[in-house]
Design brief:
Quinone Oxidoreductase, Chain A, domain 1, six-stranded parallel sheet
């Protein structure tokens, strides 16, 4: 029997057993090695921290099966599978479960130099890459990344890859700012965004940053992001809030001619999809241009899921990557 994590209600998590059949034509069966908690998304869901009538409310129904990023090994292939074979290690967009069956095309082969613990970061890197794309990052263009959690950490690394300067990380937790600096942020400010605007302006020669990327998913950050961006600047909404009706426009939009754009995992295009981004991410990690060292702070066995989500909720300042080890 297979095992998987399940939310059975608000703030309720457990494990259940399920059957997994053989793969059909064009499918593969994989055995999970590690899966990574997406602490932003999963804790919004876990705590039902969203308003009624939102897309979150329509999505989260019980039983709810959390997670969406895993490292796995191919156990069996179905008829017609050509590019994946038994024993291959792959990255898959699947949740916290011991095994999965999925189409061959949803498996991304992983370079051997990348560890089982690093692989699941590929999906969070892919999500933040959607924000990097619409942010139109470029050499020497200033950027502020608000929130140095897992998505923010990935966003900072894409800014580094694009040659942005300065790259300013904002978070109220010192540990996260230290991680952001190790990942390439040129400046880190341990404050809320609203209290950091004067320091940001000083770093950006008095005119504010060209781009503000909000990775927090907290509705109150939006208005401060509008205040922070320079004239004709851009505000990228990368964090998906559970309370969109509380995100309010301000006079800054009109007076500064701001460009506001949202980025979401589903906004793929033929030239910027999950396979292209994932392969780029793995190559950059393999070559040392995208650092992941030290981002995994906690590891749990699946049967320790209650403790894992308790830590994720109660000790935000001590966590970053929370892994489930299925090996």
């Amino acid at each position: 029997m297979e095992r998987r994590l399940v939310f059975t209600g608000k703030c309720q998590v457990g494990m259940e057993k399920f059957d997994l059949l053989d793969p059909g034509a064009g499918e593969v069966k994989v055995r999970t090695l590690t899966s990574l908690m997406s602490t932003g998304t999963e804790n919004i869901v876990f705590n039902r921290n969203f308003d009624q009538g939102t897309h979150w409310d329509n999505w989260v129904k019980y039983p709810f099966y959390p997670g969406y990023t895993s490292c796995a090994i191919v156990e069996k292939t179905g008829e017609g599978v050509k590019n994946i074979k038994k024993g291959d290690r792959v990255a898959v967009r699947k949740g916290h479960a011991s095994g999965h069956i999925l189409p061959e095309g949803e498996c991304i082969p992983v370079p051997k130099q990348i560890s089982d613990e690093e692989v699941p970061w590929f999906k969070l890197a892919k999500i933040s890459a959607m924000g990097a794309k619409v942010a139109d990052l470029s050499l020497g263009k200033s950027v502020v990344v608000v929130g140095a959690g897992p998505i923010g950490q990935m966003a900072i690394r894409w800014c580094v890859a694009a040659g942005s300067y300065p790259i300013i990380a904002i978070d109220s937790v010192l540990m996260r700012i230290e991680m952001a600096k190790r990942g390439g942020a040129t400046h880190g400010i341990v404050k809320s965004l609203g209290n950091a605007i004067n320091e940001i302006n000083e770093i950006c020669n008095g005119e504010g940053p060209a781009t503000v990327i909000d990775s927090t998913g907290h509705h109150q950050v939006f208005s401060d992001a509008l205040k922070t961006a320079r004239k004709f600047g851009k505000v990228v909404i990368l964090g998906d809030t559970g309370s969109p009706a509380s995100q309010h426009l301000s006079s800054d939009v009109m007076s500064k001619g701001l460009h506001i754009v949202a980025a979401h995992d589903c906004h793929e295009t033929p030239d910027w999809d999950f396979r292209l981004i994932s392969n780029l991410f793995f190559e950059m990690v393999r070559s040392g241009r995208f650092g992941l060292e030290g981002l995994n702070t906690h590891k749990f066995r699946p049967e320790q899921c209650v403790e894992a989500y308790r830590i994720a909720n109660e000790k935000r300042g001590e966590t970053m990557g929370i892994l489930f080890d299925w090996r």
